[in-house]
Specification:
Layout (H helix, E strand, L loop, with lengths): L1 H18 L8 E7 L6 H4 L9 H7 L1 E3 L2 E2 L7 H10 L3 H4 L5 E4 L2 E4 L8 E2 L18 H8 L6 E4 L3 H8 L5 E6 L4 E5 L8 H9 L13 H16 L9 E7 L1 H9 L4 H24 L5 E6 L8 H6 L5 E2 L2 H16 L5 E5 L2 E4 L1 H6 L4 H13 L4 E6 L10 H9 L9 E5 L3 E2 L17 H4 E2 L1 E5 L5 E3 L3 E2 L2 H10 L19
Bound molecules: zinc ion (ZN).
Zinc ion (ZN) binds next to helix 4.
């Protein structure tokens, strides 16, 4: 009898296992990327956050307190691409906000082969085609035979498009020329009825700038909630994804810097909108049914005048004058006029067509330019992109420079300014900030997970921006994006 009972028990257990319908997965993955959010904003404003917004994230979720960006330059387009592809510009090809393709300047998500939908302006002409690897959303599509939904939304086109990836159902961004959300023919030929209705309710006068307004944060979350509701995210057979990027925090930071009323107010607005959004997710998808993370594409430096007021080292490197000096020296020594085509994001692009047309030697031109730059006291490193390993610079900088390089798109020479120094001349009445360097103020970003299978806790173990995609894919038991170099983060058991 006892033996029979054991056999019955074993059979039941086996049947029980077989009856498991499918792998346990969340109904929805939500990524939130806050443009220019320094890691320390989690705590600098902590006392003033509400209990349902950023404090809820920290009190319920799991915070990776030591998350760094492992490439330079630390700029918006690269941040959004790296976060969702789990890789770096070397592989994903988004080499900057602006870069060169075949010697021609392009903006990161610009695509002349598509047209705007909901607008006739150039702001509509965007797609993910410059991105050379897959995203979390693309891998969800693979895992579920394309029977799941992936959406992106932001005020900036690149911040909506690059996170959502290639196979996304749609990305929506704001065109201030028309004062409402738009998309491009990459995704569809006309706006869905619900978007038309949304635009009727939420719009501004043309040319009204949402980028430097707290309204930009509000409109982004209202649109995210509208996507959630109208596309019924998290209510299908498989895991859906919603990528929300908050762009206005960046332009406000650039204009007013890291301190003061404007920055405080936009983070209070963010906190309020997050609380509203979390409630909507709880209501529409259910608490514990969605996996959410919040991070940033880069941080931002304190204003150099503010730093100097408090006797801390800071300033600006006059890249304009340096460009003139390089051009003059190259013309004098190599016979190439206007050899510098552009300086973007700490990178010097040589005009190769011009250099070739006069038969000058590129190596010689580079050497003359580097000699000029090496005399600049505000620069801590000047490196030939093709000879990073030979440079006398710390390993950490070598790794980040190589990671940030994409041949044919990144230029020829890269410089790094001294800590606290901006890559342009800073006047005494300048109030803004910038970002792009390797330094912690630009590369240390918040990363908090919350929701499905996330315990409460925090870690100070080093983690990187590229680990986010690896972590989400590992948790979901789906393949990681096709150029992912990140490692899945394991959440330590609660203490
Ligand atoms: Zn940014």
């Amino acid at each position: 009898m006892k033996r029979l009972l054991i056999i019955v028990a074993v059979c039941c257990a086996t049947l029980g296992l077989m009856a498991q319908p499918r792998i346990d997965r969340p109904k929805l993955v939500v990524g939130i990327v806050v443009d220019q959010m320094r890691w320390d904003y989690l705590y600098y404003y902590y006392e003033d956050y509400s209990s349902d917004g950023i404090k809820r994230l920290l009190n319920e979720g799991y915070s990776c307190e030591n998350t760094m960006i492992n490439y330079v330059p630390t700029v918006t387009a690269i941040g959004h691409a790296s976060l969702y592809t789990g890789t770096v510009p070397f592989f994903h090809g988004i080499a900057g906000n602006g870069f060169m393709i075949n010697g021609k300047p392009v903006s990161s998500s610009e695509d002349k082969n598509v047209e705007g939908v909901g607008t006739d302006s150039k702001v509509g002409m965007n797609s993910p085609r410059n991105l050379r690897s897959t995203t979390i959303g693309d891998e969800l599509k693979h895992a579920f035979d394309f029977d799941c939904k992936v959406y992106g939304v932001a005020i900036k086109p690149r911040a909506a498009i690059l996170p959502a990836g290639h196979s996304a159902d749609a990305a929506y961004w704001w065109d201030s020329n028309v004062g409402h959300f738009v998309t491009s023919t990459y995704y569809m030929d006309r706006l869905p009825n619900w978007v038309e209705k949304f635009n009727h309710k939420y719009n501004t006068e043309p040319k009204h700038d949402l980028n430097t307004s707290n309204e930009g944060v509000t409109y982004t979350f209202r649109m995210a909630e509208a996507i959630l509701e109208n596309e019924k995210l998290g209510r299908g057979k498989y895991t859906d994804m919603l990528c929300v990027s908050v762009s206005s925090t960046d332009a406000i930071g650039h204009t007013y810097s890291t301190r003061g009323r404007e920055n405080y107010e936009v983070y209070m607005q963010l906190d309020k909108e997050l609380a509203h959004f979390f409630k909507e997710l709880d209501k529409q998808v259910g608490r514990g049914n969605y996996l959410l993370f919040l991070s940033a594409d880069h941080g931002g430096a304190h204003n150099p005048n503010f730093m100097k007021e408090h006797d801390q080292p800071a300033g600006g490197w006059d890249s304009k004058t340096a460009r003139t000096n390089m051009n003059e020296a190259i013309n004098r020594e190599c016979g190439v006029p206007d050899a510098i085509q552009a300086i973007y994001d700490y990178r010097i692009y040589l005009n190769h067509n011009k250099i070739d047309s006069v038969g000058a030697d590129v190596e010689q031109v580079k050497k003359v330019a580097i000699d000029v730059l090496n005399k600049e006291d505000e620069l801590v490193a000047v490196v030939d992109y093709e000879k990073i390993q030979e440079a006398s610079i710390p390993e950490i900088l070598k790794e980040r420079l190589i990671n940030g390089y994409h041949r044919g798109r990144s230029g020829d020479i890269v410089v790094m300014t001294q800590a606290g120094y901006f890559p342009y001349r800073v006047k005494s009445d300048y109030k803004g900030t910038t970002h792009g360097s390797w330094n912690p103020y630009d590369s240390h970003i918040p990363l908090v997970f919350m929701g499905w299978h996330v315990p409460h806790g925090e870690t100070n173990k080093p983690t990187r921006i590229v680990d986010i995609a690896a972590t989400v894919c590992a948790m979901l038991h789906i393949q990681m994006p096709n150029a992912c170099i990140g490692d899945a983060i394991t959440f330590d058991a609660p203490k």
